[in-house]
Amino acid sequence: MANVVVVGAQWGDEGKGKIVDWLSLEADVVVRFQGGHNAGHTLVIGNQTYKLALLPSGIVRPGKLSVIGNGVVLDPHHLVDEIAKLAGQGIEVSPANLKIAENVTLILSLHRELDAHREQASTDAVKIGTTKRGIGPAYEDKVGRRAIRLMDLAELDTLDEKIARLLAHHEPLRRGLGLEPVTAQTIRDELTCVAPKVLPFMDTTWDLLETARRDGKRILFEGAQGALLDVDHGTYPFVTSSNTVAANAATGSGLGPKAIGYVLGIAKAYTTRVGGGPFPTELTDKTGELIGDRGHEFGTNTGRRRRCGWFDAVLVRQAVKTSGIDGIALTKLDILDGFEEIKVCVNYKLDGAFIDHLPASQAAQARIEPVYETIEGWEGTTAGARSWADLPAQAIKYVRRIEELIEAPVALLSTSPERLDTILVHNPFQDR
Ligand code: GDP
Ligand code: IMO
Ligand code: MG
To answer: Is 21 in the pocket of ligand 2 (CB under 6 A)?
Structure first.
């Protein structure tokens, strides 16, 4: 029985939350391993909609253990708010069903301020369009070896020293940027007031996960963002500040690479992106607008309208390779219902020559032109289909063509936001 990693194969918002929720029925533990509350995962279960940013999507199922791994950056105040919001929807989050890595890096108010300031100060051409939630600055402090981590809240006598080390970096930086000075007392207060609320969740999660693995429990790793937002493999610098590819599921949860098992990539039947950066198949015309309206393509966290375009097989094929994807869950096929023609990008042209991958150079990425194949649309509807037999023949052709182009099979198909409107082709947990 394999463990399963779910990762985005595009620029995020592929429907990871829905698929993780669906798969978590068969899992014992659901683990977030990177990113923070920049993620926005929407689950629709009957007449309830849950919007999660930081908590693993398994949290809504009773009896499942959720883990926030060491690779995440955690805003403790946001965590408390998200738990309270879920309580209002009847979901109980307690130390019995949520464990947080003791060595997780904390996001502080000065990270959010720095993130927002940099965004506001950037010109449109270089603006990344971050979620302004402090993700990038928190990861900077982590690799800069000056972060405050969850366990530090349990050692209050050493906190002042750690805050001083952090401020030795941030004070001159803030002065240079014209930001108000921040005092050690402010940071200390924001941490000490939240400590009693988050410390009960703290655990040695690498050990707990290894024990679960040895006991034959099924672990589902939940990725946030997508392969093209990966800090190494994405459209740098228009990326997030963590590794979003599947291999990071091991590092970000404290397990070895063999724990990963089956890699399930999630891709939409078209492409979207929020924020700045290159987007070869972007449609800035009525068709793009139509896809956005039909697909309700608005950021879960920021409410920003997502940029929309045709399916880009070059990008997803690259994600299949950089994440070692075994199979794909293709989502939002229903949004393409009723289109007479659908285009798929099969190749790029760069300075007159064909290329089969996204070049690493920022300047080259901005110059590439998509090469399209046109596929006939389908009459009838895929919306709400729950079996392969319910799909129009032409929709099946579209799916089959995508499989060929991305060099990976479709393991799951999603045909609406609702949990049960999902077609299982191959169960990832039963891969070996
Ligand atoms: P995530 O960040 O990858 O979890 O994706 P988001 O939740 O941010 O965005 C995906 C959106 O599409 C959510 O509003 C989902 O409810 C919705 N969704 C997921 N799968 C499908 C599908 O197959 N069809 C339709 N119409 N909507 C879907
Ligand atoms: P989920 O998990 C889509 C984008 C932001 C911005 C860039 C950097 O819901 O798929 P950051 O705040 O991370 O420093 O912003 O990354 N971004 C996402 N786009 N879905 C997400 O998460 C995203 N998380 C970050 O829009 O372009
Ligand atoms: Mg999202």
So the answer is: no
Q: Ligand 2, from 54, 55, 130, 235: best to mutate by most atoms within 8 Å of Cβ?
A: 130
Span 295-335, pLDDT tens digits: 999 988 888 999 999 999 999 999 999 999 999 999 999 99
The CA distance from 21 to 26, in Å, is 10
Is residue 41 annotated as a catalytic residue, yes or no?
A: yes
Q: Which two tokens stand for residue 4?
A: 């399963």
In a domain, 122, yes or no: yes
Q: Are residues 392 and 325 in the same domain?
A: yes
370 contacts 350 by C-beta, under 8 angstroms: no
CA 73 / ligand 2 centre spacing (Å) = 14
Q: Is 292 in the pocket of ligand 1 (CB under 6 A)?
A: no
- Distance (Å) from CA 225 to ligand 2 centroid: 6
* pTM score: 0.97
- 255 and 184 assigned to the same domain: no
- State the residue range of the domain holding 344: 3-22+31-37+216-432
- Whichever domain contains 136, its CATH number is 1.10.300.10
C-beta of 228 in contact with ligand 2 (< 6 A): no
In this structure, which ligand is nearest to the CA of 140?
Answer: 2
pLDDT (tens digit per residue) in 8-67: 999 999 999 999 999 999 999 999 999 999 999 999 999 999 999 999 999 999 999 999
Q: Residue 307: beta bridge partners?
A: 273
Alpha helices in 219-312 (DSSP H): 248-251, 286-294
- C-alpha 345/C-alpha 339 separation (Å) is 16
301 token code pair? 């966290």
SS3 of 400, please?
helix
* φ, ψ of residue 353 in degrees (nearest 5): -110, 150
Same domain (yes/no): 222, 356: yes
Q: Are residues 229 and 176 in the same domain?
A: no
Q: Exactly one of 13, 115, 141, 421 is catalytic; name it.
A: 13
